Description:
Chain A has 112 residues and is of the alpha+beta class. Chain A has one domain: Gyrase A, domain 2. The first copy, chain A, has helices at residues 20-29, 53-70, 97-111; strands at 34-38, 41-49, 75-79, 82-87. In chain A, helix 2 (53-70) packs across helix 3 (97-111). The A-B interface holds A 53-54, 57, 60-61, 64, 67-68, 73-80 and B 53-54, 57, 60-61, 64, 67-68, 73-80.
Amino acid sequence: MSDTIPSCEACRPDAEKVDPAKLEKYLSQVPEWRLEERNGVQMISRDYKFKNFALALEFTNKVGAIAEEINHHPELVTEWGKVRVTWWSHTIKGLHELDFAMAKRCEAVFNA
Amino acid sequence: MSDTIPSCEACRPDAEKVDPAKLEKYLSQVPEWRLEERNGVQMISRDYKFKNFALALEFTNKVGAIAEEINHHPELVTEWGKVRVTWWSHTIKGLHELDFAMAKRCEAVFNA
Lengths: 112, 112
């Protein structure tokens, strides 16, 4: 068995950005997530609310664990009672379908 | 023994903001930290760099632990290879001397 870290499909230089029609469809599947743009790069993000800092940090760690599993990493903003998760694909400077799959996994982790 | 969560001295409504003279002195003691302002609220922040996501998240957890200990919480932005720590005192909408003490503790954690 190889012990190489699996490469993330969304992080390949030839990975395809989600096209506008699919973007709309995918966004409708994660209604709590909003589309944003930073320096021309499209991203999706959601704020998750918690009762205290410890629960927020626990969620950050859970999302960190799925990120490590897939080797695709979000930005995680942890504060007292809140975690903002933002997904995008650095290499293609935009959104890959994996970003939406990861958003769905975040929903599953939060609702578990 | 009381099991009440200790209140953070910087989070009392009558806590004092650091005055401009002290601000300059305190900033010089944490030269890696920069002063910033969001919506009129002064904050201090530093980007810490790491070799991967796991090490970044580990640092986030270490800073989270000292935050819980003091019951004063920063904003922690965790990404692949980077953690941005930002301290300020929400209640007084600015910087308390405790924010600088916490910045120093972050330095100690990072350099340990």
